[in-house]
């Protein structure tokens, strides 16, 4: 809405995969390489985005399928409590009848109320456009409901019987000093308080429960979770591969629980269910010096429901009959790391038979639940996703060895301690950093002083070290691991690590003929992926918080690369559960109200979720919370502008004209763009999208009122900020926002686009000067104004703040928070984060600009979409693919002599609007080829807007 997209060139269309032989200006005959199926059978049936899911917590699940037709005209869904009822045509839960609707994604269940644990079997058939008869029914699929009511839980919350904090040893003192000592950011009093807090941290806890299986089992489901991080085990083997679980939420409001089918892991005889429980964010008491971050001592809950072949049901629940024992993890914290003492291992603690240890005590039972609601997890868990292997070992000082993994990331190391030749009681200290000098001295100042503690783990050998070691209840942001306390250089093959993140699917892919551009793309992905541990965080080494402005700064690039729907379902829920209106951080207790430019994320993320997934229920669930936020915005505005600095952060960490110079407004406040300007522009966009969302819900009066507020704020913006002598609003970010949000008057749009072009080329030497807020908008603003080469040239520009400078001079492998705020002269150590994804908003343009793929808000979820690729003169080839709910969209082009060959693939049951040349030609499903005149392709021919 409100976008202006410049078209290009004259073209011919070839509808076969083979190369076109016709000349420019001529059109080939139309032929389809993949003819429509005459009796289409829907396939890829999913519920809540999963095939045959167990544990659906949403009472009106969302159903989807794929239709192998050019255009679906209608569908019919049947849902029954048994598959036999479907076969007999007597669906008892829902018989939709013929529904005239071309959609096949995010279709809400509208049948009988579903019960906890209930199985539902379903099928679907469709009518192709122009056909009177439906196709065949799909295969039967199913889902099973989760526990929907608090009364479904008969288990108790169990917690440690309060084992005391471990006695401080010489090795622990070393760990305390390394973790808490930072005189640059903290005074002696603060350091002493931090050490005191760390000393009070109690060990992680083992829990176990033995029980008997006496007859054949039909099914067994484990419902489990914790307040704090946990790992569950059955007969000595871990259940699932999730880590750092459950996801961070406002724990007092809701905690996610997991459902595991363990039928195949149970046999007759004795069984043991075990839990390893750590602090996580729930039990955090050291970071930031904030007592309010501590929710309470960690606790766990488990309910194993076993159904036997004879119909009998046995339920094993967590209660006071469980036993507890201190874990060898003597200290654990999300920010501070772990202290692990292998000498305190408890053999077979989670296995059948004698646990081999004394010291077990009955678990304590909480009098009340630590949360208002247990909610079935609605997004994938955190997992080890990508292996990262070390590149070299450095030896900066005697007894100090630095492992360089070659890539900054968020993750966990795994070290085979048996390869290090350790003696019993020998203490190995591991410090993690994003930066090291040329000799390998690890610097930790990029973590700042915000969390008080530094990332340090300690391992105490038992002299055997038979198991590979990895932290269990923390993670680290790092490229370098400094290891001390060992006898010599560690073998490289004894160490590996894994990128850890919420395991949502990758759906977008971009590549080009330019290696630097490809690296810039991958750098954006690394920076994003390594800040996705159950929230969209700002950085992994320092705060690890879900800063809301950081989230909306990258939501477009994220939506093009990853299946963000399940993640956003959760994150938008965090906005609904927070105690704050207009929050700066969600979830968690380290937040505050007031910054409307940051909290605008709730509006922007809801809208992006909707247009990329086509799920209107997202807006329905969020709408009342959005109204609360907008009411706060109205109070924060003064004469239709946001003028009070209390209400904005601004274009955070934009480029500085000189390396290392001080910012006039301090911290990382914008140098080029006033914060009141960007906040006011964002509020115009808030009202625009609120109007659009109200319209989708049929709330006509709201839509009209919000539309008027958009006009009012836009007019105020233009009165206050337009500078006639500059033909714009004074900076790249300001001009780009004015164009992309539709604020700029139509008769001034061309001159404003030209002003951005001049500013980039003449004032900034080919560079973008934008910060977090401008990253997403400057590239499409330039290309839609006809300055493709300038937009592309930013990625190739030499020197600071360019990407080649980041890679070649600074040796950066992720996006830095404040690249020009750092002067590397003299080997200085960076003091701001070296992994900040909010600088990666540019990556969306690789898809929407170079690939030309843009969702159409009027047909969301890519039921229909726009195509408008851009062809910079210095780029020879670009390839983009995007997996949508309907199938894969592909857009790939390359130069051949004086021509550009553009290949497009449109999924079944969708269409694309080719808006090049300002036209709106509809392209149907199939594979298409366009042969374009390369000269015409560079012309500024026209505009497209809704």
Helices, by number, come to 18
User: In total, how many beta strands?
Assistant: 43
Q: What characterizes the major β-sheet? A: 9 strands, mixed
Question: Which percent bin holds the helix content?
Answer: 10-25%
Q: What is the general shape?
A: globular
Structural class, please? alpha+beta
Mean pLDDT level: 93
Q: Estimate what percentage of residues fall within beta strands.
A: 25-35%
- Report Rg: 29 Å
Describe the structure.
- With about 950 residues, the chain is α+β, with helices and mostly antiparallel strands.
- Helix content is about 20%, strand content about 25%.
- Strands 21, 22, 26, 27, 28, 29, 32, 33 and 34 form a nine-stranded mixed β-sheet that branches. Strands 11, 13, 16, 18, 19, 24 and 25 form a seven-stranded mixed β-sheet that branches.
- β30 and β31 (about 440-445) form a beta hairpin.
- α10 packs antiparallel against α11 (about 700-720), α10 packs parallel to α12 (about 730-740) and α12 runs antiparallel to α13.
- The radius of gyration is 29 Å and the shape is globular.
- The model is unreliable at about 1-40 and about 940-945 (pLDDT under 50).
């Amino acid at each position: 809405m409100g976008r202006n997209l410049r078209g290009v060139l004259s073209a011919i269309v070839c509808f076969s995969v083979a190369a076109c032989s016709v000349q420019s200006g001529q059109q080939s005959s139309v032929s389809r390489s993949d003819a429509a199926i005459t009796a289409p059978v829907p396939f890829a049936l999913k519920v809540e985005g999963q095939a045959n899911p167990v544990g659906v917590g949403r009472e009106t699940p969302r159903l989807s399928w794929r239709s192998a037709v050019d255009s679906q005209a209608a569908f019919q869904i049947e849902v029954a409590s048994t598959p036999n009822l479907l076969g007999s045509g007597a669906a008892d839960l829902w018989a939709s009848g013929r529904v005239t609707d071309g959609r096949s994604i995010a279709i809400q269940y509208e049948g009988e109320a579903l019960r906890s644990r209930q199985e539902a079997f379903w099928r679907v058939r469709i009518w192709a456009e122009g056909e009177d008869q439906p196709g065949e029914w799909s295969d039967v699929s199913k889902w099973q409901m989760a526990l929907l009511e608090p009364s479904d839980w008969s288990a108790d919350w169990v917690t440690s019987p309060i084992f005391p904090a471990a006695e401080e040893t010489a090795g622990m003192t070393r760990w305390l000093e390394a973790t808490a000592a930072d005189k640059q950011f903290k005074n002696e009093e603060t350091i002493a308080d931090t050490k005191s807090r760390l000393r009070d941290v109690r060990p992680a806890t083992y829990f176990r429960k033995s029980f008997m299986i006496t007859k054949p089992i039909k099914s067994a489901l484990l419902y489990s979770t914790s307040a704090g991080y946990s790992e569950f085990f059955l007969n000595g083997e871990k259940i699932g591969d999730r880590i750092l679980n459950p996801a961070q939420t406002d724990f007092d409001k809701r905690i996610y629980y997991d459902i595991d089918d363990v039928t195949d892991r149970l046999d007759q005889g004795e069984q043991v269910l075990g839990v390893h429980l750590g602090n996580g964010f729930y039990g955090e008491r050291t970071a930031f010096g904030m007592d309010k971050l501590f929710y309470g001592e960690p606790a766990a809950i488990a309910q194993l429901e076993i159904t036997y072949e004879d119909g009998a049901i046995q339920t094993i629940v967590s209660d006071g009959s469980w036993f507890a024992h201190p874990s060898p993890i003597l200290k654990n914290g999300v920010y501070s790391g772990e202290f692990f003492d292998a000498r305190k291992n408890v053999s077979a603690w989670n296995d059948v038979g004698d646990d081999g240890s004394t010291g077990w005590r009955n678990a304590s039972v909480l009098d009340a639940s630590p949360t208002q609601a247990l909610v079935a997890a609605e997004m994938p868990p955190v997992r080890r996703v990508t292996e990262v292997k070390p590149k070299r070992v450095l030896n900066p000082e005697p007894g100090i060895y630095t492992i360089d993994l070659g890539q900054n990331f968020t993750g966990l190391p795994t070290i085979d301690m048996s390869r290090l030749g350790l003696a019993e009681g020998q203490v190995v200290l591991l410090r993690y950093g994003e930066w090291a000098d040329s000799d390998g001295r690890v610097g930790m100042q990029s973590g700042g002083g915000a969390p008080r503690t530094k990332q340090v783990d300690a391992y105490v050998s038992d002299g055997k070290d038979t198991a590979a070691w990895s932290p269990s209840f923390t993670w680290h942001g790092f490229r370098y691991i400094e290891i001390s306390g060992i006898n010599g250089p560690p073998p490289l093959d004894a160490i590996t690590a894994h990128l850890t993140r919420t395991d949502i699917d990758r759906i977008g892919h971009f590549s080009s003929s330019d290696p630097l551009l490809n690296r810039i793309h991958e750098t954006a992905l690394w920076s994003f992926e390594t800040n996705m541990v159950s929230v969209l965080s700002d950085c992994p080494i320092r705060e690890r918080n879900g800063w809301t402005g950081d989230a909306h700064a990258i939501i477009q690039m994220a939506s093009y690369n990853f299946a963000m729907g399940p993640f956003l379902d959760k994150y938008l829920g965090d906005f609904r559960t927070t105690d704050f209106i207009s929050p700066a951080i969600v979830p968690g207790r380290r937040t505050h109200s007031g910054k409307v430019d940051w909290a605008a994320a709730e509006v922007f993320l809801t809208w992006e979720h909707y247009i990329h997934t086509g799920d209107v229920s997202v807006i329905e669930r969020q709408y009342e919370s959005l109204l609360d936020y907008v009411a706060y915005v109205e109070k924060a505005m003064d004469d239709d502008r946001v003028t009070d600095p209390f209400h904005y952060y601004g274009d955070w960490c934009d480029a500085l004209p000189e390396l290392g110079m001080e910012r006039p407004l301090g911290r990382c406040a914008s140098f080029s763009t006033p914060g009141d300007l960007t906040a006011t522009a964002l509020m115009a966009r808030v009202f625009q999208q609120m109007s659009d969302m109200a319209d989708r819900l049929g709330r006509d009066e709201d839509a009209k009122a919000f539309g008027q507020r958009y006009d009012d704020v836009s007019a105020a913006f233009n009165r206050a900020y337009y500078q006639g002598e500059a033909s714009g609003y004074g900076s790249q970010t300001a001009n780009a926002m004015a164009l992309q949000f539709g604020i700029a008057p139509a008769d001034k749009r061309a001159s404003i686009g030209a002003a951005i072009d001049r500013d980039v080329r003449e004032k900034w030497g080919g560079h973008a000067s934008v910060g977090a807020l401008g990253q997403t908008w400057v590239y499409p603003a330039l290309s839609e104004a006809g300055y493709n080469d300038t937009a592309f040239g930013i990625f190739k520009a030499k020197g600071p703040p360019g990407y080649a400078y980041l890679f070649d001079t600074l040796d950066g492998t992720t996006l830095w928070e404040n690249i020009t705020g750092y002067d590397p002269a003299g080997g200085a150590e960076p003091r701001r984060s070296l992994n900040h994804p909010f600088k990666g908003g540019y990556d969306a343009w690789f898809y929407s600009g170079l690939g030309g793929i843009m969702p159409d808000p009027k047909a969301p979820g890519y039921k229909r979409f726009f195509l408008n690729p851009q062809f910079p003169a210095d780029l020879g080839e670009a390839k983009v693919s995007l997996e949508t709910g309907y199938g894969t969209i592909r857009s790939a082009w390359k130069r051949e002599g004086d021509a550009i060959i553009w290949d497009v693939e449109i999924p079944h049951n969708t269409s694309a609007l080719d808006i090049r040349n300002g036209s709106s030609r509809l392209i149907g499903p199939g594979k298409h080829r366009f042969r374009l005149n390369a000269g015409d392709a560079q012309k500024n021919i026209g505009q497209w807007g809704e």
